[in-house]
Every structure is written in C-alpha cells, then in structure tokens.
Amino acid sequence: MNATAADVALPKGKAGDPFSSAWRRRLPLLPALLYLVAITQLPFIVSIYYGFTNLKDKTQSLIPEPTKFVGLENYKQIFSDSFFRQAVWTSVKMTVLAVLLSLIIGTLFAILLDRKFLGQGVIRTLLITPFLLMPVVAALIWKQQMFSSLFGVLNKVLDSLGFNSVAFISDHPLGSIVTVLVWQWTPFMMLIILAGLQSQPTDIIEAANVDGASALGIFRQLTLPHLRRYLELGALLGSIYIVQAFDAIDVMTGGGPGSTNVPYYVYQQSIGGGFRYGAASAYAIVVVIFAIIIATFALRVLSSLFRDEERA
Amino acid sequence: MAAVQYEEATRLYPGTPTPAVNKLNLSVSDGELLVLVGPSGSGKSTALRMLAGLEPLDDGRILIGGNDVSRVPPRDRDIAMVFQNYALYPNLDVAQNMGFALKQQGVPKEERLKRVRDVAKLLDLEPYLDRKPRNLSGGQRQRVAMGRAIVRHPKVYLMDEPLSNLDAKLRVQTRAELVELQRRLAVTTVYVTHDQVEAMTMGHRVAVLRDGDLQQVDAPSTLYHEPANVFVAGFIGSPAMNMLPVSVDGSVKIAGAEIRIAQALRGGPTTIGFRPETVTIGGDGPIPARIRVVEDLGSEAFVHLVVDHEGEEQRIVAKVDPPFAGEPGENVRLMLRGDVHLFDETEVRRATVRL
Amino acid sequence: MTDRERRRGGKLGVGERRTVVAGLGVLAWIVGLLWIFPVAWTVFTSFKTEEDASAQTLHHGLSFGRYSDVSHATAGTLSLQTAFMNSLVVVVVSTLFVLALAIPAAYALAIRPIHKWRDVLFFFISTKFLPIVASIFPIYVYAQKWNLLGTRSVLIILYIAINLPLAVWMMRSFFMEVPRELIEAAEIDGTNLFNQLRSVILPIVAPGIAATALLCVIFAWNEYFYALQLNFANGSTMPQWVITNVSTRGNFLAKLSAASIIACLPVVLAGWAAQKRMIRGLSMGALK
Fold first, then answer.
1. Which of C46, C67, C88 is the last residue of a domain?
2. Where are the domains positioned within chain A?
3. Nearest to B71 among C1, C11, C15 (CB)
4. Alpha carbons C17 and C14: distance in angstroms, whole number
5. Whole-complex ipTM
C-alpha cells in the first residue's frame, strides 16, 4: 500500500520557539485561521454580549442604542417561548427530512448513474442542475410554476386527471419547503455517493461475484459499508447547510406556523420585524451551543470521518 | 471436481486490433494443476478471467465438467478464485471473509463456522479469525485469500498470480505449501503466473502464452528439453537459453568453430539454442571466448562470456560447478556437451542434436 | 481500458441481459428528464408572453421578448449590468482569496500536520453553526461604522468567511492523497514550502482545486441574505436583481422566468463545464 502524506511522522519541536518545527508547521494555517476567527468570532462575541441585554428598537432603523443589561433574562424567556419551541421542532423536522430524503434519493440516482449507458453524461448534467440554481430561484420556480393554485403545473395535471386542486404551499408548508430543499440537494448527495461508488475496488466486487453473491447481496454486504464514510460526509455537509435554510422560507411562505425554522424565527425576532436584538441573539447562542454539543457527539463518537484518519 | 476445456476461446477488446486471447484450445484434466505462463500482455490473465466469467467470450466456448458455461455468470459456475491483490472484503473479518461464499449459498451458521475453522487450522490462521484485513500482513492476507477459496470445495480453483506480492523467501515457502495442498485436495486448478520458476515447479502441465496465442502446453520437463519454438525455449529456464543466429550447410559454425550437426538439415538462416549447462569451459574446446563476469552463487556458478560470432560479439552464459578459476577478461575455450536445438526461420524447433 | 471501464462500460458482462441493462438506461433517462422538468418548464415559460404564461397555454408563440424586457433597466431600480458586475467581482475575488488561504491551511493540516488538526478542523466547521441571521446585526452595525454598507468589499469579506471552512476541509482531503515519496523527494531536493507546493503538490491536486473553486463560486454567486441586508436597493448582486422582478402588482411570470434564467446561467454553465473535474476531484479523495 502506498503511504500518503498522512503517514508523515510528527517530529517534536520545542514549544514556544518560533523557529521550531512545530511553529513552522502551524504557520501556513494561521492566515486562514486568524481570518476566520476575526470575521466569525467577533460577531459571535458581540452576539453573546447582546444576549445579555434587552437590546431592541421599534423605530425600524438598524442603529438602536443598547438599553440595559438584563443578565440571563433572555435565556429564561426562551424556555417559555412556545414559538421558539415550535421553530426548533420545525427545524428538526425540516433538516432531518430534507437530509434523509436527499441522501436516499441521491444514492439511488448514483447507483443508476454508475453504469455506462447512452447519454450518461447528458443525464448527469441535467441532474446536477438544480443544485447550481440560486435557492431563491429554485423556491420561486416551485412556488409559481409547480405549486401555485392558480397556474401551477401540478394542479393543472391534477385537474386534467379529475382531481381537485391542492393548495400545496398553504396546506403543506413544511412539505413544500422540504420538496424544494430535496430537489436542490439531491444532486449534491448524488455526486458524493457517486464518488464513493467509483472508489470501490473492482476486484472486490469480482471476488464477491465469484463467491456467489447476488447484485443486491453485494450492495448490502460490501458496497453500503464502503459507502458509510460518504453517506456520513453527505449528511454532515448537507445538514450544515440545510439547517440554515432561509431563502426558500422567505420566498415561499414568509414564515408561518408550519414552516418557520430557527434561523427564520431568529430573523423574525430581529431585523425581520421584531427588532428584539437582545432576545434574538440569545436564541442564536442557544442554538449554537446545542449544535456544537450535537456535532461533537456525532463527529467524535459516531462518525468514522475523524477517527480512521491515522490509518491511510 | 471437474475438467476444464477451452475451445477456440477468443477475446477481443473493442477498439484493439488483435485479440487478447486468440482461439485458445486447452484441456485441463480433473485434479490437474495447469499453469498459464507468459510475459505481460500474453493473455494469461484474460484467459483465466474468461474461465471465471469475468470476461465475456467473443468466440468459442468454455466448458466446466462438460457443461458449456460461456454464458453463465461467475456466481453460477461453482469456481473459486484467488486474486493477485487478494481482494479481501475490507469490512469483514477473516472468518467472515472465508465464510462469505458459504453464507451466500445459505449454509447454516454452525456448519459455516466449522468449515472455516478447519481451513483456518490448515492454514495457521486461527489466531487471526477476528481481525480485519487491514490489520494483517501480506503473507497473512494471502493465506486468507487461499482459505476463502479452499473452504468452498468448488469444481475448479482459479489463481491469478497469488504469490507475486509476497517477498522472495515467503514466496518460495508458500509455493511448496501450495503444491502440497493442491495435490492433497486434488481439485482442478488453473494457475496464472509470469514467473517461469513457479510454472516449472508447480504445474502438472504448463501452457505458455504469447500475445494471445498458445505456444506450447506440456509437462515442465518436456517444455525444458523439447521446446516447440524459440519463444518457449528462451522463456523457460533461467538463465535463459543461449541463442545464436547461424546458417546450416552440413555443419554449423559457432565463432568459427565447426559443430557437427546431422546432415538432414539444409538451408538458410536458422537459430541454434543451447542451455548454459551444455557449455563446458575447458582448455581444448573448439570455441574461443572471453570471460566478462563470473557469478558464484555457492552451489553453482554462471560465467558470462562473449564470442566473436560471424563478425559480431555475442554473449553466452555457461553454468559451471564452483569453484571456478577464471577471471574477467581471460580468454578461454568452450565446448558444447548436451542438447543443441535448431530452429528454422519461422522460429519452430526442427531438430535437437545431442553432442 | 482500466478495470473499471471494462467492468462498467463496453459490452455486457457475462450473464447480463441486454434488456435489463437497457431498461436501466431508459429509467435513468426518465428520472433525469422528470427531475429537470421544473427548470425546463421555466425556460419554456420565459419565452412566452405573459398571458400565455399565466394560463399555461401557448397561443402567442415564443420569443426573446421577455429577455430584452428584463435587460433594460428602469430608473431607480437595480440594473442587470450593475448586478452582474457586482456579482462577478465579488465572486471571483472572494474565491481567489479563499483558495489563497485554504491551500496553505490544508498544507498545515495534511502534509506536515500540526498536532491538533482534529480540533482545528472541528473549529472550522463549527463557524458554520451560527445562523447568519443572528450575526447579521453586529455585522450591519460595524459595516455601517466603517462605511462598508453597499460596497462589494463587505460581501467579499463575508463570502470568504462563508466558504473558507468547506474549502479547507476539501483541500485538506486532496492534499492527503499526495504520495509521501514525492514530498520527501522534494524535501531532499531542498525546496521550500512555496516551491514544493508549486511543482509537486499543486499539479496533483489540481482537479481538487477546481472542484473546490467551483463550489465556492456556486455558493457565493447564489448567496442572498447578506447581499440583501448589506446593500441598498439599487446596488446589489444577482439574487437581489431577480427578486426585483417579482412583482406583487400583476402577474409577470414570463418576465420573472427570463430573469431567473439569466441570473442562474453563468453558474449553471460553469457547473456543467466543470462537472467531470468536480467528480474526479471528489472521488480523488475529498472523501477519505
């Protein structure tokens, strides 16, 4: 087996000596690290600060002055805010559904696309396209072309088949949003899983064939375990982006009991109309803390992504 | 347990001008170990894969146990294969790897475990049964690959260069164990290698392939002493047979010295070949030569010489018993004692003369 | 042919029935066409007249009329040209910076890894946990203080921060694929980091760089929220420009369709052109 860069042993440098190899190793990392700390952590810290105030401004200008320091009041309020709880629940449903569905469908598409057939490149190109669109455009397309009660394609089809029109967005807000998210993210998952399928050594498949396994048997016993890392990566990356979903909600439902997730709720509380910056910041901080806890657990304990790195 | 037959089997990759395997006709008897040997690109691996069902046939057919399996997928052929890179299932441990095929067949767990254990004992794999392939050494992996095949009792074993990834010492050791095993299990085995030493020491018969064509299939000693053509003569045996271009007109001259040859041969340019052990270095031989290099291996020695043959410098290797007293640069005289082969202009062997 | 091509391509394997294989090909076609249908329909609509668009009929034929409608700016609103230039500059500059920062960082995490690479990677990802809707307020305040509102610079700064975690993660995985022997040979030859990168590493990870750059371009071009909040109505990027074509007064479905297509076209074309490289980049080891 070829050794790769990951196998290079770590030499011991003297801590603190700026020319020791430990520091020379860190140097290339510093620009990116410092940049990210500056741009993301400063607002984060300011948000923490705001979270302890009752900062708000009803004059609708975005330059209010801080009123007073209220300590943990905002945080206490969170637990009695039923809308926040609902937003959390909606976030969970939305993210889990969208990630799972796009992962499953993406895997099925990858399997379908993993063989050579006439026009394979064309179909792959077509399938990728939804991921390349602007989320606002994707949401608009579905809102007006597909789901619309007035001139949506789906309703026209239902009509011609003799069924009643369905008001997709008003009756099924969460489902509509999940549909758009899945539509856009399935290609992303498909690409990742496709890469996974193509990285599986062929001689193992051949050996399994010779050993008498059926195609389904091979998939279940050998391919799926091999795909595990790719599925995890897809789920991780997808979750990170999907949990922040904003554009689709803004365009399709403008918020509403069934479709407001946490980011949108925070938005509504702050510049989206509530202008309660203090409270909104507290909400956001709570979300971040939970996300870090969940992610630490998921990544360090469950995932193989961080563990097997030592063995190339 | 079954016999194998290739009948005019052909494989032509789309877009290539010549077939990878060209009208191969080959029979393997029940219980025989047949070696397919040849250089890279000779078609030996392709021929094996055609037998496995991993390559389709473009013409001809393949029979196992008398049944035409040309269109049958690998899983239904009742064969077991050892791959060059072992192809162990990475997410399963050794026991699961070895029991995989049995599981696919629906063999109940108890029996599976028992059979796996028996084979593991045979191959000294018992301490490793719950390890994953990535935690095994090369030699251990090779044994697991063998075990995976042995546990199955198939009609035919197929082996694709199973020893080539082992280090030299382990290779020699495993070679002997493999032969012993095959003789004991008496399962028909088709074995592919590029190493002619393996071929000669392991096979009941050896089939030499070149560029998709079968050159000769015979017992190892027949191949050695009665090669069918220049290619086989030069491929089998190490160091390789000495080859010199000559013209035959009643006699043959090597470096100006005449060698008596049967007068049945007439005609133009041919090649003569003689193995290193037929070259004797002695004071009164007819062939003048100069020593280049002496290789003393302890049990035998090889002397590399040059002769001035028909105006060109040709290299010759002689095998001698050590200790050898000659020095590089020294002039000596050579004599041929033993088989000398004559090949005609189509490279086919026409005659062999014993001097 | 490689083993893989031989297996997956070319002729049928032994025992594979032609009907099954062809059937799967047909299924792939059906799936692909259905999946792309909403986009195809939108393209179709963009060539219609507004009447036809609303009624989903086709009485008045197809033309490029809507495209020219949206291309002409009306006074006071965001013009296509302005929005396009803004988007282009922001996307290109931010992506270049992202690569410039991510490549050395990946080096420090992969080739001569620092001890705490796991923690660093986790930190990078964790910066994406904070919803941008929360950080917008402090960002707005500071942007205003420093006169950065309505500039391209503020978006560039933010987009770099948005894309850097993903870029670092991906580039690191690609760097892990570089064979150790090459690095060691370069070190023996006495090259410094920069040369090592240039002559040895970068050629190998080039497809990975392309894949990473493509993803950064996609996310930056399509970004809506920061662009909306930090810009004024007449000086923003393409996503904002599309929204200006959403009218609450009448139904301008065809016009909106045309605008959507124009806005998405650059990234879609880039994605189409680079997809092979992206797949090769991803399978090269982005996902070890």
1. C67
2. 75-302
3. C15
4. 9
5. 0.86
Angle, alpha carbons B222-B223-B228 (nearest 5°): 110
Same domain? For B141 and B191 the reply is yes
Q: Establish if C225 belongs to a structural domain.
A: yes
Containing domain of residue B274, as a range?
239-354
Tokens of residue A54, six digits: 């009752």
Nearest-neighbour CA in chain B from A224: distance (Å): 10
* Distance in Å, alpha carbon of A116 to nearest chain C alpha carbon: 5
B60: left (phi over 0), alpha (psi -120 to 50) or beta: left
Q: Are residues B83 and B194 in the same domain?
A: yes
Please write down the long-range contacts of C70-77, taking CB distance under 8 Å and 24 or more positions apart.
C70/C245, C70/C255, C70/C258, C70/C259, C70/C262, C71/C262, C76/C234, C77/C233, C77/C234, C77/C244
Q: Which of B232, B256, B288 is the last residue of a domain?
A: B232
How is residue B308 written in tokens?
């001035």
* Nearest-by-Cβ selection for A211 from B91, B104, B134: B104
Say if strands B205-210 and B213-218 run parallel, antiparallel, or are unpaired. antiparallel
CB-based contacts of A180, cutoff 8 Å, min separation 6: A138, A139, A142, A248, A252
Tell me which amino acid residue C232 is.
Answer: F
Pair C147, C209 in one domain: yes
Q: Let me know if residue C143 belongs to a domain.
A: yes
Q: What are phi and psi of B331, to 5 degrees?
A: -95, 135
Q: How far apart are CA A127 and CA A109, in angstroms?
A: 9
Domain A75-302 bears CATH identifier 3.40.50.620: no
Could you list the residue range(s) of the whole structural domain that residue C195 is in? 78-286
Report d(CA B196, CA B202) in Å as an integer: 10
Closest alpha carbon within chain C to A27? C108
pLDDT in tens, chain A (312 residues): 455 554 444 444 444 455 567 777 788 888 999 999 988 888 888 888 877 776 666 554 555 555 667 667 777 777 788 888 888 899 999 999 999 999 999 999 999 998 888 888 889 999 999 999 999 999 988 888 777 776 677 777 777 887 777 777 778 888 889 999 999 999 999 999 988 898 889 999 999 999 999 989 999 999 999 999 889 888 988 988 998 888 899 888 887 778 888 888 888 887 777 677 777 888 888 888 888 888 887 777 666 665 544 333
- Whether residue B28 is found in the same domain as residue B133: yes
Among residues B238, B262, B242, B237, the alpha carbon closest in space to that of B252 is found at: B262
Is the sign of the CA dihedral B230, B235, B238, B240 positive or negative? Answer: positive
Shared domain for B244 and B153, answered yes or no, is no
Residue B119 is part of a domain; what is its CATH number?
3.40.50.300
- Contact at CB, C181 and A296, closer than 8 angstroms: no
Q: Are residues B218 and B248 in the same domain?
A: no
CB proximity B14 to A under 8 Å: no
Burial code of B219-243, b = ≥16 C-beta within 10 A, e = fewer? ebeebbebbbbbbbbbbbbeeebbb
CA distance B317 to chain A (A): 38
Q: Can you tell me the distance from the alpha carbon of C60 to that of B122, in angstroms, rounded to the nearest whole number?
A: 83
Q: Is residue C61 part of a domain?
A: yes
Whether C44 is covered by a domain: the verdict is yes
How far apart are alpha carbons C46 and C68 in whole angstroms? Answer: 11
Spatial separation of the C-alpha atoms in residues C186 and C148, rounded to whole Å? 44
Q: Are residues C46 and C112 both part of a single domain?
A: no
Chain-chain contact of A134 with C127 (C-beta, under 8 angstroms)? no
